[in-house]
């Protein structure tokens, strides 16, 4: 008799319910794993869909425009174009100190001409309007709690040698404005 002894037919196999295998035979497939409950599949699908929706919302929304001086200047220009003074006040650092003339509700289309570089949490923006082509609005912007807000708004003549420049009490804030 050879060193390998074969099992008799009445000896049990390695696994219950499995047919006896000849000696030296190696099983080529693994047994099937237990099926995953449909509850786990549903929960995984819900988590995957929620992650996809959050990622899409983050990509579409983008960063907050108030995180930059240029973004805040654009928001101010839009609020003046729409004559929405409540929005404008929300962009002001201390709305109780800044007087808003009634003429600002009739500025027409307002756009950002240029914004200075942001240094030490301070920037200056120049806004132009369609209804007052001889005047610019110069915004002094300040970074507060990682958001930019308006500190001062100055009416500046578009050209400092214009006749309207002599009637303004403080032209010095207008001299170094960006874009002019």
From TrEMBL:
Record-annotated membrane-spanning stretches: 38-60
Domain of life (superkingdom): Bacteria
Disordered: region residues: 1-26
Keywords: Membrane, Transmembrane, Transmembrane helix
Record protein name field: DUF4878 domain-containing protein
Species annotation: Kibdelosporangium banguiense
């Amino acid at each position: 008799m050879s060193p390998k002894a074969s099992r008799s037919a009445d000896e049990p196999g390695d696994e219950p319910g499995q047919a006896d295998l000849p000696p030296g035979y190696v099983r080529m497939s693994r047994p099937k794993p237990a099926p995953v409950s449909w509850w786990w599949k549903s929960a995984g699908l819900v988590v995957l869909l929620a992650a996809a929706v959050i990622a899409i919302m983050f990509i579409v929304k983008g960063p907050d425009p108030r995180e930059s001086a240029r973004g805040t200047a654009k928001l101010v220009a839009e609020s003046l174009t729409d004559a929405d003074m409540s929005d404008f006040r929300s962009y002001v650092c201390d709305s109780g100190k800044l007087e808003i003339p009634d003429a600002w509700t009739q500025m027409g289309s307002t756009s950002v001409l240029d914004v200075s570089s942001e240094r030490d949490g301070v920037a200056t923006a120049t806004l132009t309007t369609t209804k007052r082509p001889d005047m610019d609005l110069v915004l002094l912007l300040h970074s507060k709690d990682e958001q930019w807000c308006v500190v001062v708004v100055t009416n500046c003549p578009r050209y400092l040698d214009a006749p309207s420049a002599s009637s303004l009490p403080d032209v010095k804030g207008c001299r170094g404005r960006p874009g002019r």
